[in-house]
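Sequence in, structure out. Go.
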Amino acid sequence: MPRSAPLGALAVAVASLLFAVNGTVAKLAMQAGLSPTRLVELRSVGSAVILMTVALVVVRRRMRLRAGELVTMALLGVVGMALVQWFYLVAISRLPVGLALLIEYTAPLLVALWARFVLDEHVRARMWWALGACLVGLTLVAQVRRGVELDAIGVAAAAGAALCLATYYLLGERLVARRDPLSTQAWSLAFAGVFWLVLQPVWTFQARLLADDVGLPGVLDGITAPLWVLVAWIVVLGTVLPYTLVLAGLKVIGAARAGLIGMIEPVAASAAAWVVLGEAMTGVQLVGGAVVLCGVALAETSRLTHRTAALPETIAT
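Output:
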């Protein structure tokens, strides 16, 4: 592994924490009147505008897309970003949020299985123990138990989110092996933004909603903020920064380890909801969170001496 691997792991961990807080902020925005699909559109388009502007200033010479990258980049944006968010929203509309997250975060397992059986890469045994620990811990966090009704469409949507998230890790790893993370993320968000603008033309949005004041709950009780402030948080600190950090981490630690570290997100999301929204965590959930963190730590000791950065040509067309 490169000497910068610890920094790569740190980048993915920070991104996971930002994503976790973003879940609570997004929930507040939706409670204030924004529909999930409209919020996803604002997130994608706003982030694309910011990152494309920054990239054109900072890495202008690296923004050119090669012919062989066009389809892969479009897939990263539409499947790995736009659709993973949409599938997740459908899933949580029909399933408990914890259960939907549990299914979605089987993505690292899909990445590891792809690496082992499709790419024929060597995966140390402790990686499988780490994956098992993470999945067991997430089961405890999700509080999967008798009485939970499984909606077929909800389960299918959560599984779709897992497949799209795994696609994001794999395609992102392939692209950043050949180009810088900033231009990669800028282009992927641009494709995601165009995708949503086609589905929901901007003129159908009632922009006046963004001026409405939103009362903040929990420890922030008594404080109000305009809805546009929450949307700005979601765009900048919930999308632009964390996604760029994830791709920066992918460049040095690979898809499997990035996916495992990313499993910190549902644990941190539960903690954020506990502090801000008053959604208290049970003792079993706290134990589950500890198990997930132990699994991540175990995975960090299982990294291989050599890693193939590029994926096989069958990934891209």
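Check: The longest helix spans residues 227-261. The chain has a mean pLDDT of 81.
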